[in-house]
Amino acid sequence: MPHTPFTLPITPDWQALVRCIRREGTPKRVHFIELFLDPEVKDVVCERFGLTDRLERTDPYFDLKREIAIQRFLGYDYVRCSLEGFDMPLRHALADDTADLQRRGGRQYQDEHRGPIATWEEFESYPWPDPARASTHALEWYQANLPDDMCVIGSGGFAHFAEYLSWLPGYETLCYLLYDQRDLVAAISQRLIETYRVFIGRLLQFDRVKIIWGSDDMGFRSGTLISPADLREFVLPGHKLMAEASHAAGRPYLLHSCGKLTAIMPDLIENVRIDARHSFEDTIETVVDAKSKYGDRIALLGGLDMDFLCRATPDQVRARVRDTLDKCHRGGGYCLGTGNSVANYVPLENYLAMLDEGRRYGACCVMRAA
Description:
By secondary structure, the chain is an alpha/beta fold. It has one domain: TIM Barrel (Alpha-Beta Barrel). 45% of the residues lie in helices and 11% in strands. It has 15 helices and eleven strands. It has a seven-stranded parallel sheet with strand order 1-4-5-8-9-10-11, sandwiched between helices. It has a two-stranded antiparallel ribbon with strand order 2-3. A hairpin with a 2-residue loop joins strand 6 (219-220) and strand 7. Helix 10 runs parallel beside helix 11 (265-272). The mean pLDDT is 95.
């Protein structure tokens, strides 16, 4: 059996996770959620705690079994999965990775000057992927083999309406196109909407997929990356379609989006009808402030600031977890996690301290209720 850094055990309960996201009362324990863990973090967790010692690396399903082992060990109620083999070629810049858990091959960044589609000719010749041909191999295996107490969150390579709208032309080029070639912007937007319409339809065919999570950065520290009006025209209709499809199938629709979205939060809540918002940064808005402002209408997820997690001590992380849960846990509508993702530059001890303190807090809640 793997040794553990955690004080208390957790048994996954996907149904309780969904009830928490739907704000159906104070959960019996704290639920955790992350958009993703960097591969380097997963590797070191497996190595340090022996999570794959009993798995055969030659097993064709080794990676999927490893994912279940990691998620259960850390205390998550789900695995994250999506269609596979669905890629849109982009232009990248490459830089060295300076994180302690260094990424082989460096870090890739989008070319913000010019992407592969800046003209109508490039739009027509672009190798658009066919979502109807993307693989459901992993989803099929999880459908048959995922433990009953866990669910699949449909997420990954999905619902990038604003992101691909800027990545395909390049952000700088998009700004020019919004001024003098809006018909091309509209065409890219519509192609993305039609692509993801098929994509989500295929995701929702799997009944082990209990939550849909779109990921689409729309802002930066002081505002949205393009105007709120342009987001309403070219981006939000796509997310509204995703939310409608999710709701029609009885699943909540979560949205990850970085940046200051104050100007479009009414649209996201009242028109798009998201069920939860993820990605918080202290210099923009803390998750505690967001919970007090929006918590009667949507769930708020994560929120332990990335900069804080990188600079704090484990004891400081624990103190902040307790304070955040004191203000966000009651009534449901909050899951504990980082402000963005478990990046390979976050000290592992701080990440594990966050999870352990969440487990301890949940036990205290049960004792107080008793």
